[in-house]
Amino acid sequence: MNKVSIIVPVYNAENYLPNCLDSLVNQTYENIEIILINDGSTDGSLKICQDFASEDNRIKVFSIENSGVSTARNIGIENMTGDYITFVDSDDWIELNMIEFVISKAMKEKVDTIVWSYFKNFSDSERALSLIPGGNQLFTNEKDILYLKSIYQFYGQEKLGDTVSAGTTWCKLYKSELIQNNNIRFKEELTRSQDVIFCLEAFSKSERIKYYDENLYHYRINNSSTCSGNRFIDDTETPFNSLLNEMKKFSKQFENKTEFREVINARTVQVILWHLDHKYFHKDFEGNIFKRKQDVLKMIDVEPYKTALKDVNNNILPKRERTMAVLLNKKFIFSFYFIYKIHQLYVKITNQKFD
C-alpha cells in the first residue's frame, strides 16, 4: 500500500489550521504522513500543529525561523518518506476522499502526475471550478495546454475571470521519485508564483500526466493566505524579474509558437500590476503621486515590460489589466492610479473573503 506524503507550510494560520488538519487526519486513505512546517508563526499555529501531532503519529512537525513558503516546502520535500507527494496550504482544506481518489487513479493509470480540480471558497459561497479546460485528459508528449495554462491562468478560458493557474502547488499528486530524481525544488528567491516554476519543471519531467475534472480541493479566499498577499515589497524588481526570466527560459523551446509568445506577454503585463500592487501604488510607498508616476514610467520603459505592453494581445487580458495596458502605453499613469484606487475601494466594500 503506497504511502502519500502531504506537505503543509504553516504561517500564522491559527484561524483556519484546525479545519485544514481535520480534513487531513480524517482521510479515507490512511497510509499517509502529514509534514507540517511551521515557518516562524507568531500566533498559535505551532501549538495547534503540536497538539494534532500528539494525537496522530502520522504527523511530523518542523519549526523554522520565518524563511518563506518555498523554503518551508523544500524542507518538507527533504523530509518526506512517501511514495507520492502532494501539497496543501494551511488555510485550505480537502475532501475526505481526496487522497483515496487520486492515489487509486495514479496506480490504475500508471502515471507520474495526477492533476484535479478545486472549489473556490468565500465566506458565504462556494464555486466548483476546473483547473484545466477540456475535461478529463491524459498528457504524454503533447503538454502545451498544461504549460500555457500554468504560465497564464486565463489561457483557454471563455471567461477571463474566476480561475487560477494550472501551476498551483495544490491539486497535484507526484511520484516522489519524479521530484527527488530530478531534484525539483521551489526557487527560494521568488516571492510569487514559485509554484508555477516548480510545476512547469515537474510537468516537463513527467512521462504520463492524467487530469481529472473532479473538485476535491477547497481553496479559501482570505486576507492571510500562505502567499504574499498584497504586502509592501521594497525591491519588486529582483523577484518579479527572476520569475519572468524563469518563464522565458522555459518557453524558449517553444519560441516559434505564437501561443507561448502571447502568454509570456500577458503574464508580463500581469507582473506590471504586481509591481503596482506591492510597491508603486502601495500605501507604504515613500513618495508622493509624482514620484509614483516617475518610477512607474521608468519601470515600463525597460525590458521585458516595454515590449510586453506594446505587443500584448489585449483580448486575452482581464478588464483591469487591459485598462492598465492601454493607459500605460499612453503614459497616462495618473489616470490608471485613480481607476486603481476606485477599484480597490470597490473590492474592499464587496469582498467576500474570510476574515
Q: What does this molecule look like?
A:
By secondary structure, the protein is an alpha/beta fold. The protein folds into two domains: 4-220, Spore Coat Polysaccharide Biosynthesis Protein SpsA, Chain A (Alpha-Beta Complex); 237-350, no CATH class. It contains 13 helices and ten strands. Strands 1, 2, 3, 4, 5, 6, 7, 8, 9 and 10 form a ten-stranded mixed β-sheet that branches. A hairpin with a 4-residue loop joins strand 6 (113-121) and strand 7 (126-129). Helix 5 (144-151) packs antiparallel against helix 7, helix 7 runs parallel beside helix 8 (237-251) and helix 9 (258-280) packs across helix 11 (305-311). The longest helix has 23 residues, at 258-280. The protein is globular. The model is unreliable at 224-228 (pLDDT under 50).
CATH architecture level-2 label of the largest domain: Alpha-Beta Complex
N-to-C CA distance: 40 Å
- Roughly what fraction of the amino acids lie in strands? 15-25%
Estimate percent helicity: 40-55%
| Whole-angstrom Rg | 20 Å
Molecular shape:
globular
pLDDT < 50 runs, ≥5 residues = 224-228
